[in-house]
User: What shape does this take?
Amino acid sequence: MDLGIKGRRAIICASSKGLGRACAMQLASEGVHVTMTARGAEALKQAADEIRKANPGVTVTEVVGDITTPEGRADVLKACPDPDILINNAGGPPPGDFRNWTRDDWIKALDANMLTPIELIKATVDGMMARKFGRIVNITSAAVKAPIEILGLSNGARAGLTGFVAGIARKTVINNVTINGLLPGPFNTDRLRGTAKGEADKRGLPVDQILAERAKLNPAGRFGDADEFGQACAFLCGAKAGFITGQNLLMDGGAFPGTL
Assistant: This one.
């Protein structure tokens, strides 16, 4: 299926690994010129080189920096000042007991998972509307629909972003600019393995055993694959996806038991 976005320009945040990298790879395979950003220079270069090798016809630009800072955002927007596609993504805040979180913990979570995406939307959406094409995808979390008690920082910040987008997505679509959320459940990423390690250490079990137990609990009997996520992201960015806006696509293997 040709998504009709060959030659478009995209910014993909936190794209050196995991779901962000999968989104960058899939967009590049559709002929989109991608600007990738992450804090780790080595991992970012490796991911960018792999995408270049697989897609020699597209331009891949690397910007090392922290997208949650004004300087990091400025560097990315300098490298790609007029993106047609924006993929907002940032690592989730750490789990824990809300009684132990300080105001600084909350501000850090809000900066990364709510305010940074809003700042990037603010910086790019008017240009998209003027050009009559724009696709913004916010990678949030399944916890937006089914909050996880120990992920209170993430629950709060990502739900705030979701509420904000619900309003403006109905204002931008008349100019063919859509804003949607992709809500990952358990995907086979470094973050999932990291949380599994914490449980493994507590229980004195191998990490692989914890992962196998968790996978069996999902209705799909497995974890999601990052490539699946990247393909869904690319579809939402497609030229024919202009009638989808303000929506939150849950990708969790059926774990959420609700009807809506």
